[in-house]
Design brief:
Oligomer: single chain
CATH class of the largest domain: Alpha Beta
Radius of gyration: 20 Å
Structural class: alpha/beta
Strand content: 25-35%
Number of strands: 10
CATH superfamily of the largest domain: Ribonuclease E inhibitor RraA/RraA-like
Largest sheet: 8 strands, mixed
Amino acid sequence: MANQDIIKDFPRVSADIVRRAAELQPAILADVAGRRGALNGRIRPLHPGMKVAGTALTVEVRPGDNLMIHAAISLAKPGDVLVIDGKGDLSSALMGTIMMNACRKLGIVGVVMDGAARDTVEIIEMDYPVFAAGTNPNGPTKNVPGRIGHPVSVGGVTVHPGDFVIGDADGVVVVEREKIEGLLPAAEKKVRDEAARIAAIQAGDTEAKWLNAALRAAGVLKEGETL
């Protein structure tokens, strides 16, 4: 009988869609997704130059125990991002350099965890993307069961296995597997529109043409008034 706590096979975002979406900023995808999917800002890259994009392999652990992370690493597929619900615990690190080296060797493209990492300098030097809620030199235990391949809550966002995950210096955004492809045209248009707006500003057109209408709608200005 299969272990119900470990789901090994689930649909993932296709590699072609991942490559296309990876060209975008997380902020752009969050905007076109209705300003949803951004993890709490406490989950940050260990270095601002780190970037990640891939499909979520979800892991739920007890605070301070990484047994199921080791199991998830052994089950991961190339292109996966480990997305770990560590319950926000920062009393001990869930992962360090040894595990990150294993992840890289296996084709796991990055780690996002609502918990702590350690060996920060070494991870930065190896240029492996890790997004964590903090750091702590304490090591974890390896004793407690958990779950793999189930929905998890990370940074206030529900993440399903196979969802699209992207992160940069701003933080991490997760987009549902079923929605990411449909959002790409709007995201790519937004990139073009923002580039055009920046070019206009640089040419001297700094007026926010929507502002007066928004102020009237909010009741700040009366009808017919302008700033």
